[in-house]
Amino acid sequence: MRxxxxxxxxxxxxxxxxxxxxxxxxxEAVRIEMDQEAKVFVFIIDDEPVALLDKHGMEIVEHLNYGxxxxxxxxxxxxxxxxxxxxxxADE
Length: 92
Known about the structure:
Layout: H1 2-16, E1 30-35, E2 40-45, E3 48-54, E4 57-60, H2 75-91
Antiparallel strand pairs: 1-2, 2-3, 3-4
């Protein structure tokens, strides 16, 4: 519950903080905003935050649909996979 409240507060800060505001005419309907200070990515659709990604995980406002299966492979395995993919992407 605390994480949800923190997420809502961060999203509200994005919406109402003029430092993050851009002219409405220049904003795209779908975008990802980064906050280096809060260390989060906020996914925005039609000027509404729909998801937040930080080092602790991802918060999604509505539904999560998938066609495969969800697998809990453990934090260390996930970290290894991310590092391997980052290394491969840097080589390309």
